[in-house]
Write a structure and sequence with these properties.
Radius of gyration: 14 Å
Strand order of the largest sheet: 1-2-3
Family: Belongs to the BTG family.
Protein name: B-cell translocation gene 3
InterPro entries: Anti_prolifrtn (IPR002087), BTG (IPR033332), BTG-like_sf (IPR036054)
Organism: Gouania willdenowi
Distance between the termini: 31 Å
């Protein structure tokens, strides 16, 4: 049985996991660059919305590994830009290059767990 429901109530099931990954990225960016605080706050808000919308329909608490690859945030030699990070940058006025992300980072956002490499 899926506990996820569409609409804003469904977002409550993934709220803490998305908050964890956004908080991690926000701290990472602050450490590497001097992105304006207001822009960074807006970036975090826009990234939260982008991830909520992406994960809708792909969040199954009973089977956390189901959809894991889809919920992965990945930047590496083959995937230089993550679409949700790009969207949040575009909507907040932050330049993607100003994020100062490492040349390789992978974050998995799963029900009950967020981990990275």
């Amino acid at each position: 049985m899926r506990r996820f429901c569409s609409g804003c109530h469904g977002y409550q099931l993934m709220k803490s996991e998305i908050a964890a990954v956004v908080s991690f990225l926000k701290r990472l960016v602050k450490l590497k660059n001097k992105v304006e605080v207001e822009k960074m706050d807006l970036f975090a808000e826009r990234l939260t919305v982008a991830l909520q919308e992406k994960f809708e329909g792909h969040w199954v608490p009973e089977k956390p590994s189901k959809g894991q690859a889809y919920r992965c945030i990945r930047v590496n030699a083959f995937h230089k830009y993550d679409p949700e990070l790009l969207r949040a940058c575009r909507e907040s006025g932050v330049h993607y290059g100003d994020l100062g992300l490492p040349w390789e980072i992978t974050l998995w956002v799963d029900p009950g767990e967020v981990c990275g490499r």
